[in-house]
Amino acid sequence: MTTIGLIGAGNIGGQIARKAVSLGYDVVLSNRRGPQVLGDLLAELGDHARAAATPAEAAEAADIAVVTIPLKEIGTVPAAPLAGKIVIDTNNYYPQRDGRIAALDEETTTTSQLLQEHLPESFVVKAFNHIAAAEITTAALPAGDPDRRALVAASDFPVALTVVSRLLDAFGFDPVPVQPLSESWRIQRDTPGYVQPLSAPQLVHAMAIAERYRDM
Question: What local confidence, expressed as pLDDT, does residue 37 receive?
Fold first, then answer.
């Protein structure tokens, strides 16, 4: 059984864990405050979930890792235990939380490219960044439903993109694969597709008409 290791167990991490457990995945959760604060969530999740003592332990246990911590903290993500692994990045840039990051303000890179630079031996995939956390568990629909929502997966690595696209489908969403990772800006905060309940064709269109912040 695939184990999903969560580095960060806040709103998004908690909902990904809930959905993953409901589908039979094992999850290992970690956060910066330590496992002692995860008792209620673990009790809810049941036998398929456990807490790691550190993010490094969660990374070591993971077949697929999810980094869902504030962008300003990505330098703390343990690189060595994530080497050779798929790492899902859920992040968005909020200057009021993260401080100003010149490369993002100038749009010479993206949040996920920053994580990929920090994890050069991992396969980073941008996903789950443009859906409200609660909707990860409440908005899912079976394949073929005309109202099924689409979510983007963006990466430089085709195999990783396929794996995460299948995960999105299992979670109840139509995957929209995007390459390369640098194109993930098209679904960043305040773009037309951000947090909108769109079908796959609608989401593709929303990304096509997205504009760079610097050009607005």
Answer: 83
Q: Are 153 and 125 in contact (CB under 8 A)?
A: yes
**Cα–Cα distance, 98 to 188 (Å, whole number):** 15
Residues contacting residue 206 through CB under 8 Å, at least 6 positions apart: 191, 192, 193, 196, 198
Does residue 26 sit in helix, strand or coil?
strand
Positive or negative: CA dihedral 39, 41, 42, 43: positive
Listed by start position, the domains of the chain span 3-215
What is the per-residue pLDDT for 33?
A: 81
Q: Looking at domain 3-215, what is its CATH homologous superfamily?
A: NAD(P)-binding Rossmann-like Domain (3.40.50.720)
* Model confidence, pTM: 0.96
**DSSP per residue, 75-88:** GGS-SGGGTTSEEE
Output b/e per residue, 109-122; b: 16+ Cβ within 10 A: bbbbbbbbebbeeb
pLDDT at 61: 97
What pLDDT is recorded for position 34?
81
Are 25 and 50 contacting, i.e. CB atoms less than 8 angstroms apart? no
- Residue 143, φ and ψ in degrees, nearest 5: -55, 135
Name the CA radius of gyration of the chain, rounded: 16
Show the 3-state SS of 121-147.
CCEEEECCCCCCCCHHHHCCCCCCCCC
